[in-house]
Structure formats: C-alpha cells, structure tokens
Amino acid sequence: MAKTMRVGICGAGPAGLTLAAILSREGEAGAFELKVFERGEAHRDQGSGWDMSEAALEALSRAGVDPSTVQREGSDTMRFYRTGGSRPDVFLRLPSYLKGWGVTKEDVGLDQMNLETERNLIIGGLMGQLRGDVAVQHNTNIRATTRKGERVELVGANHEPLGEFDLVVDASGVHSHTRGARFAHSADAF
Ligand SMILES: Cc1cc2nc3c(=O)[nH]c(=O)nc-3n(C[C@H](O)[C@H](O)[C@H](O)COP(=O)(O)OP(=O)(O)OC[C@H]3O[C@@H](n4cnc5c(N)ncnc54)[C@H](O)[C@@H]3O)c2cc1C
C-alpha cells in the first residue's frame, strides 16, 4: 500500500474544513492522516451571513454539504448579470417595504438569486461530512512551524509540539502566523 500522507491543517474555518472533508471523502483508505488545528472553541458562535461564489458552492458540494442546507433564513439578495456575463453587475436586496407587503423574492420572479449562507451552518455541515478518523483539535493556537527532516512540525502557543506532517496547509485566514513563518528568512521555509 502507498505511504500514508500526514496532513496538518491550520484553521477549522470554511477553507480548512472543506479541504479536510474533501480529502477524507475522496482519498483512498489510508491515503491521508488528517489533523485540523483550530484556536477557537468547538461550539463558538460564528454566525454571520455570507454571499458565496459559484466556486465556493462547488467546493462545498464536493465536500458533501448541500448548499441549500446552509442557506440563511430570510435570504433575499439577488444578483444581476449582463447577458453572457460571468460576473454580476448589480447586487440588490429586496426592499423592506416590499417584504412588509408580503412580497418574497420568488414573487419577484428573478432566478439569479445569490445564495446567502450562514457560517455556523457551513462549519456544522462540514464537520458532519468528515470521514474516517479526521482529528479536529480545538483550543489549539498554532504559533510556528519547524522543519524536521522531510517533515514539518507544528508548534502551539506554549511552544508545545503538535505533531510532524508531510504537508502543512495554512487555512488560518488573513492573520496567519504560519504564513509569516514560512516566508521569513529565519524560518525553515521550503
Ligand atoms: C464582516 C465580514 C463580512 C464578510 N462577508 C463575506 C461574504 O459575504 N462572503 C465571503 O465569501 N466572504 C466574506 N467575508 C470574508 C470571509 O470571512 C472570508 O472569506 C472567509 O472567512 C475565509 O475563510 P477561511 O476558512 O479561509 O478563513 P477564516 O474564516 O478566517 O477561518 C480561519 C480559521 O482559522 C482559525 N485560526 C486562525 N489562526 C489560527 C492559528 N494560529 N491556529 C489555529 N487556528 C487558527 C480561526 O479561528 C478560524 O476559525 C467577510 C468577512 C468579514 C470580516
């Protein structure tokens, strides 16, 4: 059997969990050993509404989450395209006075509706689609990466070692610690 690849994913946001779900579902048995590290708590409120691009919706579907299950209640944004255009020109919300009269987006008859989603539902849906024994370790803040021969060690906030990996994926969002480490001269960047 081929060697198991140890993958460490930093961040259990939509990007990290989407990757974990896809690898756990599509990888052959034993192909990946997946560990996701998240600095936040397991059941923290992450609620916010999101407009999602087609590419993001596709990735979510591939990860096993049906986009209709993550739609935000009362979602009412609509997007309008020029004929043949691939990017929307105008975003509109259904005016509240129309809603007050009981008019819904379906009544307006515009089928180019942008899917507004709920981050909590996305995270929950993705967690439910992880297959095999993917480990998601919450309350774990990744602070550094160190090269260990052919592998990379992830290091926590108290300098504790969190394991060695063949591949580390930085999915920790805009304020990433690992991204800086990889590109700093002093770090074992490769
Ligand atoms: C007000 C607001 C509105 C937005 N609206 C939209 C929108 O409508 N549509 C849209 O597509 N995008 C929107 N965005 C952007 C959206 O938040 C990002 O595109 C999205 O969160 C990126 O997902 P991600 O998984 O890459 O990163 P994140 O969602 O940032 O997830 C990163 C995860 O990594 C964790 N993490 C961070 N550092 C560490 C660490 N050192 N160790 C361990 N874990 C760590 C974080 O706790 C987090 O859970 C909005 C952003 C803001 C602030």
Description:
- The chain has 190 residues and is an alpha/beta fold.
- It has two domains: 5-47 and 129-183, FAD/NAD(P)-binding domain; 49-122, no CATH class.
- The chain is 25% helix and 27% strand.
- The protein contains six helices and eleven strands.
- It has helices at residues 14-26, 54-62, 96-100, 105-108, 119-128, 177-183; strands spanning 5-10, 32-37, 49-51, 77-80, 90-93, 116-118, 135-137, 142-148, 151-156, 161-165, 167-170.
- The strands form four sheets. The chain has a four-stranded parallel β-sheet with strand order 7-2-1-11, with helices on one face. A three-stranded antiparallel β-sheet has the order 8-9-10, covered by helices on one side. It has a two-stranded antiparallel ribbon with strand order 3-6.
- A hairpin with a 2-residue loop joins strand 8 (142-148) and strand 9.
- Helix 1 runs parallel beside helix 5.
- The longest helix is centred in the N-terminal third of the chain and has 13 residues, at 14-26.
- The radius of gyration is 20 Å and the shape is elongated.
- 24% of the residues are buried.
- The mean pLDDT is 84.
- The structure holds flavin-adenine dinucleotide.
- Flavin-adenine dinucleotide (FAD) binds next to helix 1 and strand 3.
- Flavin-adenine dinucleotide binds at residues 10-16, 37-40, 50-52, 141-142, 171-173, 177.
